Amino acid sequence: MQFVEEIVVDEFLPTVRSMLAGKLREQGLTQSEVAEVLGISQSAVSKYAHGDVTINDRIAEDERVDALVEDLGEGLAAGDVTPVQALIEIEVLIRDLESGGDLLAQLHEEAVPELADHGSGFRVHDPESDLRTSERVLSSLRRGLRILENASGFARLIPAVGSNLVACTPDAEDVDDVAGVPGRIFDVKGQTTVPSDPEFGVSEHVATVLLAAREHGTDAAAAINIAYDPDLLAALSDAGHVTAEFDEADDVASSVGAAIEEQPEATVLYQTGGMGIEPLIYVLGTDAESVADTVRSLL
């Protein structure tokens, strides 16, 4: 049995990475720079450059794939496109190519001929696949980050400790099941700066708040911390959010749990600071995009 996601991972992504690596090298980037942009090792870039990675010719010769690689290669090299934006564009193309009768659907049917009995548009996904679940979370997080990066004025909501937008898998149990931005999101001279692509297990603090809220009954699957301001809290309340205060001077998980038990409908948690503790607001939501949209509405 083979799922369409396996074709994406085993054939589509290596082909597109190889094409992108070649395009970036044509744009004058060094192997080190290509590795940084694509989030791969220099040795992987070297393999792509020397043709040591098998590519799928049908994918490489598809006009849509070629056009996207051309656009992304130029945009990434010029700095007009961020790696997060490139990932989103590639993901959109993957979903298009998976649609009934299209390229990835054809490759899938050829890999599993029995699918022909169910119609050319039929695809088998593995709904329980850890890879699929994790990628769905990361994709949502990338879209949320893109909203924040493009939201004029968001930088002023970033606290001194930095913000982090996090999202978790449906059955999250610990911080390794929560994805966030390594190094957090910072305000650099008035510019919202996302230092790197989201990963799982990199946010301990905001992840702990989210996990504690979920453990005590909330259905939130994403969260962000922003600077505390009574006016922001009032604006969130006016928008229909239920707010709840907790004490971060104590055990965070226990304090958040107690706040949720007292206000089960809370979608905004906050603490007003203390000795060595910066006051913060935590916005919870069903996914990263909705959390980012809530924050954007405050601007």
Automatic annotation (TrEMBL):
It holds the Pfam family ThiN. Residues 26-48 form the HTH cro/C1-type domain. InterPro entries: Aldolase_II/adducin_N_sf, Cro/C1-type_HTH, Lambda_DNA-bd_dom_sf, ThiN. GO terms for molecular function: DNA binding. Signal peptide: none annotated. It comes from the Archaea. Gene3D superfamilies: Class II aldolase/adducin N-terminal domain, lambda repressor-like DNA-binding domains. This is HTH cro/C1-type domain-containing protein. It comes from Natronobacterium haloterrestre (Halobiforma haloterrestris).
